[in-house]
């Protein structure tokens, strides 16, 4: 089991510069890779460049970036630019994002998201491996001047069409806040899709909220990060089966996030994350590994744990025992 760290995940009310602190802690502790997600606050490539300047060795993955608002060349050019400035390998992660983000924030239509993801992944994979001197795109008079970014192509997937895209075009498929049971099911779908595509299945990673010996505010932060999933098909059943049917029903009725947060007990944080003492978290890591996960990307709670220092330090031995 590989363990990486997510410096910037979904939007919350943590300090704007908290991702830099998380990345610095991860680098100092010896984690090998930091993910730099994109949202309404940070541009992934700018933040990744800042992280590269503030750290010594950690590899970088920018994204997931929404394919409906960034074209393939823009994505790869961004990664190559970060790699050139930082001297680190830089990968990219692609996703469809949500209508709330694509249309509500960017003002762009989120049409044919599965098709857009497939088209972008195919193009990005090709562009990631171009060499200096080649046409920047076929038929263009402009030539490549940057070296390839050197990192992996990751596709965030959950639905069947996105999984097929990941199987065909990615080095790694990414899941977000999933239970071990979901990992087992999605691993099976990924393996089957890769067989149909005639490829070795890509590695399977998941962003998982993490809080070791959490403070109350840490638990609240984790719970806030999952309330939005209570209405998502495939997730709502997981929470209902775990005993949180009342919260699922409230979400279906259109309840606001604060109401949903109040309906979720602290124990709900363990359904799709790594929360508890070290022994509990270690057992949970084992459960994810047994379900078929290759990599856990820790999304450390930082409320009550500046930079995620306590959680990332506590999980070093887990990382060491599992590769």
TrEMBL record:
Luciferase-like domain segment(s): 11-294
Known EC number: 1.-.-.-
Positions of transmembrane segments: none
Oxidoreductase recorded as keyword: yes
Keyword Transit peptide tagged: no
Segments forming a coiled coil: none
Alphabetical UniProt keywords: Oxidoreductase
MF GO annotations: oxidoreductase activity, acting on paired donors, with incorporation or reduction of molecular oxygen
Top EC group: oxidoreductase
NCBIfam families: F420_Rv3093c
Protein name: LLM class F420-dependent oxidoreductase
The species this protein was found in: Streptomyces spongiae
């Amino acid at each position: 089991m590989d363990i990486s760290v997510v410096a910037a995940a979904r939007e919350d009310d943590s300090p704007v510069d908290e991702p830099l602190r998380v990345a610095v802690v991860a680098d100092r502790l010896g984690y090998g890779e930091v993910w730099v997600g994109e949202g309404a606050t940070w541009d992934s490539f700018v933040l990744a460049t800042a992280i590269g300047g503030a750290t010594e060795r950690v590899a970088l993955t920018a994204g997931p970036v929404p394919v409906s608002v960034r074209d393939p060349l823009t994505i790869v050019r961004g990664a190559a630019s970060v790699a050139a400035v930082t001297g680190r390998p830089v990968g990219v992660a692609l996703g469809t994002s949500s209508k709330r983000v694509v249309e509500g924030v960017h003002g762009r239509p989120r049409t044919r998201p599965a098709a857009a993801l497939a088209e972008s992944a195919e193009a990005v994979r090709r562009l990631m491996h171009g060499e200096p001197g080649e046409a920047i795109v076929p038929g263009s008079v402009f030539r490549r001047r940057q070296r390839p970014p050197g990192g992996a192509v990751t596709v965030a997937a959950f639905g069947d069409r996105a999984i097929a895209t990941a199987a065909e075009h990615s080095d790694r498929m990414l899941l977000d806040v999933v239970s071990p049971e979901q990992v087992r099911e999605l691993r099976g779908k990924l393996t089957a899709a890769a067989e149909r595509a005639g490829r070795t299945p890509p590695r399977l990673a998941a962003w998982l909220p993490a809080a070791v010996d959490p403070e109350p505010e840490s638990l609240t932060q984790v719970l806030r990060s999952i309330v939005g999933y209570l209405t998502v098909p495939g997730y709502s059943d997981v929470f209902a089966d775990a005993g949180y049917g009342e919260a699922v029903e409230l979400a279906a009725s259109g309840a606001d996030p604060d109401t949903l947060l109040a309906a979720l007990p602290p124990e709900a944080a363990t359904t799709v994350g790594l929360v508890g003492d070290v022994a509990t978290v270690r057992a949970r890591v084992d459960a994810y590994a047994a379900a078929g996960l290759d990599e856990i990307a820790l999304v450390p709670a930082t409320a009550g744990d500046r930079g995620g220092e306590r959680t990332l330090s506590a999980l070093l031995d887990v990382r060491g025992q599992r590769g």
